[in-house]
TrEMBL record:
DNA ligase that catalyzes the formation of phosphodiester linkages between 5'-phosphoryl and 3'-hydroxyl groups in double-stranded DNA using NAD as a coenzyme and as the energy source for the reaction. It is essential for DNA replication and repair of damaged DNA. This is DNA ligase. NAD(+) binds at residues 55-59, 104-105, 135, 158, 196, 320, 344. It comes from the Bacteria. The lineage of its organism: Bacteria, Pseudomonadati, Bacteroidota, Chitinophagia, Chitinophagales. Zn(2+) binds at residues 438, 441, 461. PROSITE patterns: BRCT (PS50172). The gene is ligA.
């Protein structure tokens, strides 16, 4: 959309505007320049994924424009960047008619179907070879947009294909959709285009993580998340979901009087180029124009191998005859066009029978229902157990024992039940009864008002004790090798192990009588347990399994005290003053260290020889990296991430858990992801390689 010369000019304009704004010299004469600059940077961020200024700098220019438009409402334009977010809730979504029906595509699951499609199309077109445009089939929510006289006039859902819901206000929250597009440049007065709204895998995970922090059930998949968001009545909430859109089809246009329509519209690939030039995110880079169906089939197979590496979900490829004039020749049925077909990838959904629900107790007492289904292969994995998260999920999905259920597994996401199929019920199904008492110890379950999870509050519940011991000994905690989950469960069942301190009092004479425990394995286990006593206190803090305390937070807590038991004297306010510790984490830590049983456990561990005091070598205050913060992303060429982080701390630096203005260095390896993109927007962060990092260490 922007040439190199335009990019330089707009970046120069941006610099000038930022300088004027910082000096308070910006005036209403700068309004159009501000709009041009903000549109340019929206395009760099949301379309090209290559921002040229930091978020803060963009926000300052946005606020300046907002202030000027408030003071001069007559100068506000409908396509101004400030006009995306509406001031009020959407009361309803009126039904509107599409200019051209949104038909479905005929589906194919194998190469033979594509060969048949090609044969029929060639016969109707009376040609020997057809040119095809092949592009990804996005797994999102279909939309239709109408632009009139260069302005966005309407956005609608697919609906029944003939009519859909008017969601224009919500469409404006999607920043990869421009509010204006110079369609007149191509000789067009009106343009109807089709596309797909989606949520990237990264944004989907981030949103589900936020839901998990609030003890809310996760969204099912990115497709459902996108479709559901489009119907939210609060535009501000829609904006928070960070939806994106690909526009991939010109369905209708009218000619501008006295102007010729640009010949770029004669091919489908040309239409994708036009959409890209207009500022839309079209699949221009993903598409390929190919002659003959054999080349098409090869490209479909090639793209399927890349499926899991894409930042968004796709479920196949769409093959379209490239010559638009042939579309009229080939025509369409009442269901689908004859000039296009969808090649679907291997299914990641399957149906199965829900046979039972088991209730598992975690180390924090949370009771999780787990569905047991008839094992079924999905996406290359056989699935037999699926977490149902909490009681509300069971109710919302209307699940019953004996139901036929639809199961999905997308990418690396854990399997989940999409829905039950009540129309297949026989009357023999049984209601799922959530227990009122702990299925392990029998204590009454409790559910705090702010949570969706039932919990067993008995900290001596056997299930919790076992899970806590498993976590305590894990690799990133105390790292006691040889004492894995199977052995812990065996020792617990035999009465050799009853709690965490019991790890350091194991009866090795008795263990030596068990099958599989020879002299060498006993010696190795004794050595691993003894070595764990020397682990630094940040590992011990993490090993304790305090809710919301991960490895980075454990280090923050460890660096704040000389002795671990000092934390019992910290107030909530003092905990929240520590870096990256908010009210929820502070509350959990405070509650843990006010519990007499927990203090007694720590005192016993110290008596058994574990280190609760920070050695001087653990409290590095000098060193080459003193006062500097680091974060690692991607795969480093030679170092393990854990080793690199240890090097930072040994040299007086600090590891942060996320990208923020407090970060000094981001060390980026291969396949660096979202952290790198976010760091690029904060000018104070230095992005360096592993080699540059090592140079800092040895400087």
């Amino acid at each position: 959309m922007y040439s190199p010369d335009q990019t330089k000019a707009l970046q120069k304009l941006t610099t000038g505007l930022m300088e004027k704004n910082s000096q308070g010299h910006i005036t209403d004469k700068d309004i159009e320049s501000l709009r041009d600059a903000l549109r340019f940077h929206e395009h760099r961020y949301y379309i090209l994924n290559d921002p040229l200024i930091a978020d803060f700098e963009y926000d300052q220019l946005y606020k300046a424009l907002e202030k000027l438009e408030t003071e001069n409402p007559a100068l506000r334009t409908p396509d101004s960047p400030t006009q995306r977010v509406a001031k009020e809730l959407t009361k309803e979504f009126p039904t509107v008619s599409h200019l051209v029906p949104m038909l479905s595509l005929d589906n194919s699951y194998n190469a033979d179907d594509l060969v048949d499609f090609d044969r029929r199309a060639r016969e109707l077109a009376k040609v020997d070879v057809l040119e095809y445009c092949v592009e990804p089939k996005f797994d999102g929510a279909s939309i239709s947009l109408i632009f009139e006289k260069d302005m966005l006039a309407r956005g609608a859902t697919r609906g029944n294909g003939v009519q859909g819901d008017d969601i224009t206000t919500n469409i404006k929250q999607i920043r990869s959709i421009p509010l204006s597009a110079a369609i007149s440049k191509y000789g067009l007065e009106q343009l109807e285009i089709r596309g797909e709204v989606l949520m990237t895998k990264q944004n989907f995970k981030k949103y589900n993580d936020q839901l998990a922090e609030q003890n809310l059930p996760p969204l099912a998949n990115p497709r459902n998340a996108a479709a559901g968001t489009l119907r939210i009545k609060d535009p501000k909430e829609v904006s928070k979901r960070n939806l994106e859109a690909f526009l991939y089809h010109v369905s209708h246009y009218t000619q501008l009087p006295g102007k010729d329509v640009d010949p770029i519209l004669n091919t489908h690939s040309g239409c994708l180029t036009m959409l890209w030039e207009l500022g839309f995110r079209s699949p221009l880079k993903e598409k390929k124009v190919l002659n003959g169906i054999e080349a098409v089939i090869a490209y479909c197979h090639e793209f399927e191998q890349q499926r899991d590496d894409l930042p968004y979900e796709i479920d196949g490829m769409v093959i379209k005859v490239n010559d638009i004039h042939l579309h009229d020749v080939l025509g369409m049925t009442t269901h689908h066009p004859r000039w296009a077909i969808a090649y679907k990838f291997k299914a990641r959904q399957a149906t199965s029978k829900l046979r039972a629900v088991e209730f598992q107790v975690g180390r924090t007492g949370s009771v999780t229902p787990v569905a047991k289904i008839d094992p079924v292969p999905i996406g290359g994995v056989t699935v037999g157990s699926i977490s149902l998260f909490n009681e509300e999920v069971i109710k919302d999905k209307d699940l019953m024992i004996g139901d036929t259920v639809l199961v999905e597994r997308a990418g690396d996401v854990i399997p989940y039940i999409v829905k039950s199929l009540p129309e297949l019920r026989t009357g023999n199904e049984q209601k799922i009864v959530f227990p009122t008492h702990c299925p392990v110890c029998g204590d009454k379950l409790e559910k705090p008002e702010e949570e969706a999870v039932w919990r067993c509050s008995n900290i001596n519940c056997e299930a919790q004790v076992v899970e806590r011991i498993i976590h305590f000994t894990s690799k990133d905690a105390m790292d006691i090798r040889g004492l894995g989950e199977a052995n812990i469960r065996k020792f617990f069942a035999l009465g050799f192990l009853k709690d965490v301190p019991g790890i350091y009092e194991l009866p090795f004479d008795n263990i030596g009588t068990l099958e599989g425990f020879g002299k060498k394995s006993i010696t190795n286990l004794q050595t691993a347990i003894e070595n764990s006593k020397a682990q630094p206190i940040h590992r011990l803090i993490y090993a304790l399994g305090i809710r919301y305390v991960g490895e980075t937070t454990a280090k923050t807590l460890a660096h704040s005290v000389k002795h671990l038991l000092d934390l019992k004297d910290y107030s909530l306010e003092e905990l929240q003053n520590l870096e990256d510790i908010g009210p929820k984490v502070a509350g959990s830590v405070h509650q843990f260290f006010q519990n007499p049983d927990n203090i007694a456990t720590l005192q016993k561990l110290e008596q058994l020889g574990l280190k609760l005091k920070n050695d001087k070598k653990d409290l590095v205050t000098g060193g080459n990296l003193s006062g500097q913060t680091f974060l690692f992303t991607g795969t480093l060429p030679t170092l393990k991430r854990s080793d690199a982080e240890a090097m930072v701390e040994t040299n007086g630096g600090k590891i942060l858990s996320s990208v923020s203005a407090n970060l000094t260095y981001l060390v980026a390896g291969e396949e660096a992801g979202s952290k790198l993109e976010k760091a690029k927007k904060i000018t104070s962060i230095k992005i360096i390689t592993e080699a540059e990092f090592l140079s800092l260490i040895h400087h």
